[in-house]
Amino acid sequence: MHKHIFEAMKFKKDSLLLLDQTKLPFEEVWLELSNADMIIEAIQNLRVRGAPAIGICGAFALYLSIYNDNKLLVDEISLKREANRIKGSRPTAINLSWGVDKVVDFVGKCINLNEIFDFVYSLYLQEIEINEKIAINGAKVLPEGSILTHCNTGSLAAPGIGTALGVIRKMFQMRKLNLVYVSETRPLLQGARLTVFELERDAIPYKLIVDSASGMLMRNFMVDAVIVGADRIAANGDTANKIGTFMHALAANFYNVPFYVAAPMSTIDFSIATGEEIPIEERDKAEVIRCMSSLTCKDDTSALNYAFDITPAKFIKAIITENGVYSPNEILTLLD
Ligand SMILES: CSC[C@H]1O[C@H](OP(=O)(O)O)[C@H](O)[C@@H]1O
């Protein structure tokens, strides 16, 4: 594993240890979560966030529900009700459903609690290997130079090296990277707070920018490629990602800057044809009228807070997965 990779979650037989990402970068606070309710709260309040990370946490939440009430092992209806409750904590990232459904399927074959724990932990370890492959595949294809990225897609969002930020880490190791432009990512500042935190730990050169600066940088030939993560990819390659991604893609497309998406195959939702079918999480307006805890306008200000947007496949040069690098129109062919 990359020497700078750090663990943002740890697993005990009776609880999940989680680095509270709402406190970063100012404090490193670890939480001990002993039931699904606590993990659901952590997911909903982005104490843990990032599609692959919440997928693993969702899977572990269902394991903890079973640990706390073994009757779920022999009551399929109650097990699926609990699974749906956990899956409902955030709607956009398909990885949450993927992780929870993996446990439901496993319990259908094995009701030994220790083996269920081992299975969830194996999913986590597999994610680390998957993200290492994504990083290698992506670093091979991205052009040398300065890379712009949005939100956080590192070890905090995806076990191990991360996804899009994993590609950036690998580029740095390969001496292909000049500079990272980190889009701050309003309103919750995953870029400014979390990606900067990760890049500083790795001593990777970066510049933090406001989200709306990306067009100017591209117009001035300062960006050689854009790479982002994904929360759900439709069968035609349309991609849901953090709000603001689409604006970067528009600018990149206008200025002929290659735009890449990095994500595990588990992020692809083959059950939907286009991005129009991806549910977009709408969050509390309080996040928009504040910058972290400080009000930036009157508290009765009317606001709209979509947490994700859709980037149409036509704006995406390639989707980088652990299995390879694909143009959006190749995604449907991957359905095994
Ligand atoms: C490696 S997936 C990270 C993905 O998740 C982020 O959203 P959130 O911080 O709300 O969980 C963002 O869309 C990232 O690209």
Automatic annotation (TrEMBL):
GO terms for biological process: L-methionine salvage from methylthioadenosine. The record marks C151 as: Transition state stabilizer. It catalyses: 5-(methylsulfanyl)-alpha-D-ribose 1-phosphate = 5-(methylsulfanyl)-D-ribulose 1-phosphate. InterPro entries: IF-2B-related, IF-M1Pi, IF_2B-like_C, Initiation_fac_2B_a/b/d, M1Pi_N, NagB/RpiA_transferase-like. It holds the Pfam family IF-2B. One of its GO terms (molecular function) is S-methyl-5-thioribose-1-phosphate isomerase activity. It comes from the Bacteria. Keywords: Amino-acid biosynthesis, Isomerase, Methionine biosynthesis. SUPFAM superfamilies: NagB/RpiA/CoA transferase-like. It is an enzyme of class 5 (isomerase). The keyword Amino-acid biosynthesis applies. The active site is at D231 (proton donor). Its EC number is 5.3.1.23. Pathway: Amino-acid biosynthesis; L-methionine biosynthesis via salvage pathway; L-methionine from S-methyl-5-thio-alpha-D-ribose 1-phosphate: step 1/6. Substrate binds at R49, G50, A51, R90, Q190, N241, K242. Belongs to the EIF-2B alpha/beta/delta subunits family. MtnA subfamily. Catalyzes the interconversion of methylthioribose-1-phosphate (MTR-1-P) into methylthioribulose-1-phosphate (MTRu-1-P). PANTHER family: METHYLTHIORIBOSE-1-PHOSPHATE ISOMERASE. This is Methylthioribose-1-phosphate isomerase. It comes from Thermodesulfobium narugense DSM 14796.
